[in-house]
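Workshop exercise sheet. Pairs work together: one partner reads the sequence aloud, the other fills in the structure field after running the prediction. Swap roles for the next sheet.
Pair: D.N. / O.F.
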Amino acid sequence: MGKNADESIHRGTLRFGRHARVGMGDTIARFLMIMDDHVLIPSLARHLGLGLIPARWQGVDVLLPLLERIRGDGAMVLIKFDGGRDLTENGPYTVIASGGPLKGEYIRAEMSSLERSVAKVIIEYARRCWGFVEPS
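Structure field:
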């Protein structure tokens, strides 16, 4: 059983699309990877001393201190709500971080969940620019 999906690298960034066939195991692995980014947000906030973010956080308002920290590094974060795409494509939400310490590279996530898109970009930025390592 397969699902349509496409993985392509954009300057070291994983992007999800809809063109290549992958097995169900790949789909589950991707889901777990996305979930991990969502779950890692509270650990990252604690690591940076930004206060408590609950384990079951919702909405992007709780992420504003992390986004402000990225902005403070001189980077830019763009959040796009695309009315031309729906949940069956890459998803209507695109989040991109660029500039500052990324030095010409960018981090991009396109997903059907705004929270997951923003979390993916924040965690990847933290790995690259702040030396964040997932707690074991």
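Discussion prompt: Residues 1-24, 28-32 have pLDDT under 50 and may be disordered. What would you look at next?
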